[in-house]
Amino acid sequence: MREIFCIGSLLLSVFSYSQTKQDKVKELISLSGAFKLSKEVEKDVLLNFKKRYTNIPDSVWSSLEPKINIDDLISQVIGIYGNKFTENEIDEMLVFYKSDIGKKLIQNSPSMMTEIQTATSSWGMEVTNLVNNDLEEKGYLKSPPPPMANPPAPMKSK
Fold this sequence. Notes:
- It contains six helices and no strands.
- The protein has helices at 2-32, 39-52, 58-64, 70-84, 87-98, 100-137.
- α1 (2-32) crosses α4, α1 (2-32) packs parallel to α5 and α5 packs across α6 (100-137).
- The protein is extended.
- The N and C termini lie far apart (73 Å).
């Protein structure tokens, strides 16, 4: 009997630990802004489909709505964080995201990401132009382009 009580206590403490860690991860994700934990996401997803498929009646969308559950995705994301970070690391991240500098990072992240994407795109265009201009100057880019050493096999018609 004592062994059963000990095993039960152990399982309960493991479950409690896991539940606490999950709650912390959920708070971390919510604070960091890394993942939108909202039922609104479900509606947004469905709205995007509605815009794409305008010929589908509302009754079909109404029947689909209860089948789309953001909680399934949230559970997966919590599991991913939980597998990558210890509970202590999650605690430390929570302290950071609640600090002034953490709040500033969260506040500035969307605009920073936009600026980074723009800079990356511009840089990619500059590299493309640089490479193309250099290859053209050296005579490698000709119109029409030189034949390939191993051209792909022709497509077969059905």
